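ok, trying the design again with the full structure, not the truncated one.
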């Protein structure tokens, strides 16, 4: 039996306070690995929140200090880290005439000290459209550990079943979503998160934040579910480390039950 012990870091985020948030994230990460977690999931834009007022100031490239610190942590504890942050776009070769935003909402995955892959958010919501450029690729991130492929989803992308389905068709073994969901949208988010697990027969680690900022209140409610949509672990409204074990052999058996993917008829859709 091969199990992956996962941890959703359901943390409060202080708007625009990058160093404070990073230190808190690493402290909670240390607690998670002390409990033998090997896959740590952080919420959407965990290091800054949606810091629109100072977005160009807080944005970083993939070689910046935030991912560098996470890589150091991952190397020290031989663990996998995922989440999202505000990325400063490399502007060389970008047409100024198009006046595209200078940032991406960057999903990342780090394994044993190295950046294993990134996913730039493809489906933006509300004011994000003004501040972020659209990602243009959807692919799983391949890892060394257990030969895993992670389907990384950033918040609003859950609304679009096609995102999770493409990740599944390209070989994702589990879905991971990093979210910053406000209280008024918690119920739909939960239903969509479970639906993406059930319709693709994949485990899903759905990680939301807690706390509040000038925009909203954030109620947490993170969970880990299997490919039947059964809840393996669930969080409340407070900052916490949500731990759950994903049985990869059981997950494979669930995928082999029935022929959901094989029986699709995309020529009709």
């Amino acid at each position: 039996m091969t199990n992956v012990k996962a941890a959703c870091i359901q943390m409060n985020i202080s708007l625009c306070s990058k160093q404070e948030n990073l230190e808190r994230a690493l402290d909670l990460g240390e607690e998670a690995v002390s409990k033998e977690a090997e896959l740590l999931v952080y919420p959407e834009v965990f290091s800054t929140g949606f810091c629109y007022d100072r977005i160009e100031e807080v944005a970083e490239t993939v070689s910046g200090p935030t991912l560098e610190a996470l890589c150091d942590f991952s190397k020290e504890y031989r663990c996998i880290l995922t989440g999202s942050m505000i990325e400063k776009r490399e502007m060389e070769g970008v047409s100024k005439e198009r006046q595209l935003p200078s940032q991406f909402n960057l999903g990342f995955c780090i394994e044993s000290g190295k950046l294993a892959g990134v996913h730039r958010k493809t489906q933006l919501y509300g004011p994000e459209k003004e501040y972020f450029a659209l990602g243009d690729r959807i692919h799983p991130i391949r890892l060394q550990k257990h030969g895993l492929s992670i389907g990384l989803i950033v918040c609003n992308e859950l609304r679009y079943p096609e995102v999770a389905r493409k990740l599944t068709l390209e070989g994702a073994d589990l879905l991971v979503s990093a979210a910053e969901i406000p209280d008024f949208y918690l119920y739909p988010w939960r239903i969509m998160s479970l639906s993406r697990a059930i319709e693709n027969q994949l485990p899903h680690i759905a990680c939301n934040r807690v706390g509040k900022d000038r925009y909203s209140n954030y109620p947490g409610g993170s969970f880990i579910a299997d490919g039947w949509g059964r809840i393996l672990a669930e969080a409340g409204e407070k900052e916490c480390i949500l731990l759950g074990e994903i049985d990869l052999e059981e997950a494979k058996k669930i995928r082999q039950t029935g022929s959901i993917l094989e029986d699709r008829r995309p020529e009709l859709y």
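Keeping the full-length input from now on. The chain has seven helices and 14 strands.
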